[in-house]
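Chapter summary example: a protein plus adenosine-5'-diphosphate.
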Amino acid sequence: MLVHTPAHSHLSGPLTYSSEQVFAAGTLVRVPLGKREVLGLVWDQQSDQTAASSDGTVSSGKLKPIVGELDGIAPLAIAWRQLVAFAAGYYQRSLGEVALAALPPQLRELSTLQLARRIKRRVKSIDPELPSCPGVFDPLVLTPEQQLAIARFNLDRGPFLLFGSTGSGKTEVYLHLVQQLLATDSNSQALVMVPEINLTPQLESRFRARFVPQFGDHALVSMHSGMTPAQRLKSWLAAHSGKARIVLGTRMAIFASLPALKLIVVDEEHDPSYKSQEGARYSARDLAVYRGRLEGAKVVLGSATPSLESWHHSRPISEGGRYVRLQMPSRIGADAALPLVRRVDMNHQPKKCVISPPMLDAMVQRVARGEQSLVFLNRRGYAPVLHCADCDWKSECPHCSAYRVFHKIDRTLRCHHCGYTERVPRACPACGNPDIAPMGRGTERLEEHLAELLAGVRRPNSISSQWPEGEPVRIIRIDADSTRHKGELEAQLARVHAGDVDVLVGTQMIAKGHDFRRITLVAAINPDGALYSSDFRASERLFGLLMQAAGRAGRDATIGSPSEMWLQTFHPNHPLFEALKRHDYPAFAEAELEQRRQAAMPPFSFQALVRAEARTQDVAQGFLTAASRNSATLAQAEQLTLLITIYPPVPMTVQRVANVERAQMLIESVSRTALQNFLSAWQGILHATRTQSEGRGLLRWAIDVDPLTI
Ligand code: ADP
Ligand code: ZN
Ligand code: ZN
């Protein structure tokens, strides 16, 4: 029996309950836990029975009875339970935690009666509306590349990596694959995942338009954390009962119960959002591949800039590849070529200029032609630091080892790590100097700066009598701050689409997925930061982001002028920019993989991080050091010494957050199996080491397998 137990409690395995009735494994039940009644999942029917009978009267007296099962919900299938068991084992978490977190929260929260009512209501609401005209939809004529990709998909088992440029028609391929599946197998279900909630509405509308007329409104449900608990329960039940044929969702959807799953699509598979950053730190992309094998469902990972892991897996079979690579290099539309990439060498521009004169000029030309520009800066707020030139005071967060960001709009200093927010002081808190100044630049300040630079420029064709010479340029900013409230993002995007905006300033949020037809200039004003980062994945992320941002431009072939991407850089000849100029992801990937190979980095090695949090660095690092020392015997016993490298603990990049000190320790191996074996054997030692640690009251630790940032 699995119940939801707190992480790291010693109740990590299944608990045993007695029952007069035999429940099938996978049945959802209510059981007593302490003084409460909680949701339980019958994990292992056999052991329940043996426990209840073989221990005889003594222990069945001790065993608490199961209260009852959740009526109207079929037991969770074995494949689902195997997925959960794999995820718990691989990511080093307890079964109960992973299983119960994978279920909609209302299953836990609602009383049996409330739940029964919900299920009844759902059953009633379904059915009357059968599709009025089944099979009526008007598919596009697929391009030869799309046809080839689909033909190959139908011949092979996969998993598949669909490597296609932005705008090459990948989504259309997904729609087609789902269509052919649903049409030929009348029970089948498909799971389609996207990285971000923001991207679900537009995907959902495309899927609805295609499938609702054929299969009815209930055939398609969404699953993401932006839904209300009631909506989540409803979607979950629809998927679990098999009524929903298509589930669209973010990473959490990988755990949806889909009894007839036959196809999994992971769009933008390289996106870091697929990796959970809390609880069980699972990768939904990697679990998709596992789940596909488990359930005999075909898996398609799609991207214009695949993760280097997936790219490497899709090398030719003769070289050891495991994924089938499907390629769609061409963009759809006669003139929709990929944008021309231009580099501005900042070594030859006026010192300290933010927007170089040639880039500004290019933007002004766009305004004059009635086209749009997108200016991209991956830092929100007005300025990352506020600074006093007299005494060198800086806007540090009192609770974190980080600066608080200056937000001019509401005149606050906000910590982006712990959320601590204060009004901006009138004068330097240290010396009283009234002249404290922002240092550096975020999107807010960039927006302000652009407004100044473009103040004299006018939009063409104005018929307004208020602005006889043309209206001022319209600038909009889209980032996490400007879209905090529900509906804001949609409203802002609608303005962009309506042509009500000339210049769009934003963070990576706007580089992803959104389809901007009238944008012909994409500008990255400061992409250099990631070139020489200590994080070995930084250049991979930068390349992906810039390629994606470039893909935003020129999607509308009816706009005559060619679209361009401008980069301001001090390293114009960097190989990353050279590859970007040629839109040559394979060249970038080959070079990057060669470096990884030489340095024995992933995907040529496997990593895990143990993170520790405590009141002081000493305690956090002391715990890690002790756990590392205590593992020595284990590694020898398991003959793993040669295969496992444990690095010394180090403080995390932002070492203190909300007054908690954070440290981490890297474990590496050339063998995934060796790493897995070591980690599972080491768990007990970590628990024991924590129990012996000083200051352990505040000591917490967690393992991150296949971490994305180190
Ligand atoms: P991606 O997902 O690769 O960015 P999409 O599937 O969104 O590409 O396709 C880009 C655009 O091309 C969309 O507007 C889509 O409707 C259109 N499109 C896709 N396939 C075809 C096709 N075979 N014929 C005509 N237009 C297509
Ligand atoms: Zn001062
Ligand atoms: Zn803080």
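Key point: The chain has five domains: 28-125, 144-328, 340-380+442-598, 385-439, 606-705.
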